[in-house]
Design a protein that fits this description.
alpha+beta, globular
Length: 363
């Protein structure tokens, strides 16, 4: 049968009945099917049960998170929680972790099409003139979205424009897409669009690095919260808990950096994705955003001549987190946020500092 030819009604019915029969045989996935009424995904049939363990306690001396917390980590991989808990024990014995969330952003990058490079250049040059109206139209779509800046990129006969927003306490990926789509739709039907001879606009031209591995670019335009965590281990504590010296740890991690360079790794850390993925799932964050949130830069400072203390600093240009909206509304994930004191309005940056701190002790 030609792929473009629709299935006969009888065949479609048979396929539906076969699918329904398969679902009826499920036991574990569908055991809580009576709780699906408030779930906001399509074609929901049940739940994937992922074990949750805890790591901590860990005292976080942040600018937004100032608590001693035990963190929920959802994972199916043995040793992830044990590793993180061991790191918590070592750093807790040395006073805990400091953290600082410094800025945030979330963006979309629509692409504007023209019939000639000259027309594209003309639009590029006039974009600052159009920005006030684009900002007004974008912010009409949400109580929380605030358009911070537009950054144009001229590529052949197209102009990719990065729209950078603040999104309140939500992670804001859907919010910014709706806001951007609203703004470009209004622009497309305006007199200004006719003046610049706009052909069409797509809401995304893949320059926002949405859920890709190009995390380093986010240092210029953050997608999420930019945050840094740091802490110091003494040689005594390191020998007692980690069974090695601080010099051993320094040499090991320094050699890993050489491996990062030789293998062209994007970022430089040990394995922050373990803690990030576990905490994302346990607290209702978008699990697919682990791919860009895990770009991190771990730096080391070893006191060779004095205390032999080893200071670790872990920097994230973009942790895509939210303390409201999305998956944070579900009861299990809300409890996870409450465990670490990051549920509800005003706790987004505290959540970023918390995740960064646990990622550091895990490394």
């Amino acid at each position: 049968m030609d792929k473009k030819t629709p299935l006969p009604a009888s065949s479609a019915m048979d396929a539906t009945q076969k699918y329904a029969a398969q679902v009826d045989k499920l036991v574990h996935i569908t055991r809580h099917a009576d709780e699906l009424s408030d779930i906001k995904i399509e074609n929901a049939i049940g739940f994937a049960q992922i074990p949750i363990g805890v790591a901590g306690p860990l005292t976080i001396h942040g600018h937004h998170q100032t608590n001693t917390v035990v963190a929920p980590i959802a994972t199916v991989e043995a040793a992830v929680i044990a590793t993180t808990a061991r790191g918590c024990k070592a750093f807790q014995a040395c006073g805990g972790i400091k953290a600082y969330a410094m800025r945030e952003g979330m963006g979309r990058a629509p692409v504007f099409f023209f019939d000639s490079v000259d027309d594209a250049v003309g639009f590029y040059k006039r974009l600052p003139e159009f920005q006030p109206q684009l900002k007004k139209d974008a912010e009409m779509s949400s109580r929380f979205a605030r358009l911070l800046r537009l950054t144009p990129h001229l590529i052949g006969k197209t102009v990719h424009v990065h729209f950078e927003f603040e999104t309140g306490d939500a992670a804001g990926q859907n919010m910014t897409e709706i806001a951007t789509a609203t703004a470009i739709a209004k622009f497309s039907s305006s007199l200004a669009a006719k003046e610049v001879r706009l052909v069409k606009v797509n809401v995304e031209g893949h320059m926002s690095i949405d859920k890709t591995g190009a995390g380093a670019r986010a240092m210029r335009n953050p997608r999420g919260v930019t945050v840094q965590a740091w802490g110091t281990l003494t040689d005594e504590v390191c020998r007692k808990i980690l069974r090695c010296s601080t010099a051993d740890v320094y040499r090991t991690l320094h050699s890993s950096k050489e491996g990062d360079i030789r293998s062209s790794n994007d970022g430089s850390s040990v394995n922050v994705s373990n803690a990030i993925a576990g905490l994302f799932i346990a607290t209702g964050q978008d699990a697919a955003s682990v791919v860009e949130s895990s770009w991190a830069h771990l730096t080391l400072d070893f006191d060779f001549d004095g205390t032999r203390n080893l200071t670790f600093t872990l920097f994230f240009p973009s942790l895509i987190v939210g303390s409201v909206g999305g998956g944070t509304v579900y009861p299990t994930q809300k409890e996870g946020l409450e465990m670490i004191g990051c549920a509800g309005p005003g706790r987004k940056w505290a959540l970023a500092e918390t995740i960064a701190a646990f990622a550091l002790v895990g490394d």
